[in-house]
């Protein structure tokens, strides 16, 4: 009994140490990103998190990004939450990422287009994030929900998702004195609630530009393969148009029901086919582009306008790409057209 008591006391000392270290870094990040101003969030204890997830037992698993983080469902004091836990490996490679996620998620939590951060726990070696849980489902690589082979969502739902995500990105680009670039727009960072409303999340590698600046050079390029802006990849220069490009790819995924890339497995030098290249090649050959979904869901006029907008978002030059606020307005207009 005495041995168990000493073990528990040592664990509490560790948790106190982690809390102080994490709290210090969190405060530094808060000051750096938004001058210390943020929406209030709750600080959960490690006991609450461990008890609610049974020490992160797989039976509470919701979703994961391998080698990065795992989501768990949890009930604390009668309320349902979604817990985001980063892997040790990810934290070692990207030590500031969890704090960035907390700071920026809390900053945008008042806007309906984002997954709401309720709080965090600083008593672990890496902070654990606590979000609202409204029976959310994560989008899969084909822009649907469930397994990769699951049926596509109805076209009107996919259009609604695009509109919500476009508005959320436009908010990041325009709502604050300093532009926030998400830098990782892709289906795994989009969730649907039980009413089909889309929410954007995933700010661990987002970048807040210096006030008055429209770009920054990043030492380490980051993003999801198939969604990354070629300009950013080749120059290390990150702008709001990098998000525009990534969103254009997401539009193509939603429209066609295909992943951003796939493996042809033919033994060639370049076995992976990028969705954007696939679409452009079809256009160059004058071949029809097949839109995803059942025949009774087709809205050819809407879908053609949606395709044209997606390709404009993916133009080779930044100056030829629209701003996200214009993209959001165009999608809203497309949604109202009965064609």
TrEMBL record:
Question: What is any one GO biological process for this UniProt entry?
Answer: cell surface receptor signaling pathway
Which keywords does the record carry? ATP-binding, Nucleotide-binding
The Protein kinase domain, residue ranges = 29-333
Q: Does the keyword Nucleotide-binding belong to this entry? A: yes
The record lists the lineage as: Eukaryota, Viridiplantae, Streptophyta, Embryophyta, Tracheophyta
SUPFAM superfamilies from the entry? Protein kinase-like (PK-like)
InterPro entries noted in UniProt: Kinase-like_dom_sf, Prot_kinase_dom, WAK-like
Question: Gene3D superfamilies recorded for this chain?
Answer: Phosphorylase Kinase, domain 1 (3.30.200.20), Transferase(Phosphotransferase) domain 1 (1.10.510.10)
The family database entries (Pfam families) matched by this protein are listed as: Pkinase (PF00069)
| GO terms, molecular function | ATP binding; protein kinase activity
By what name is this protein known? (rape) hypothetical protein
GO CC annotations? plasma membrane
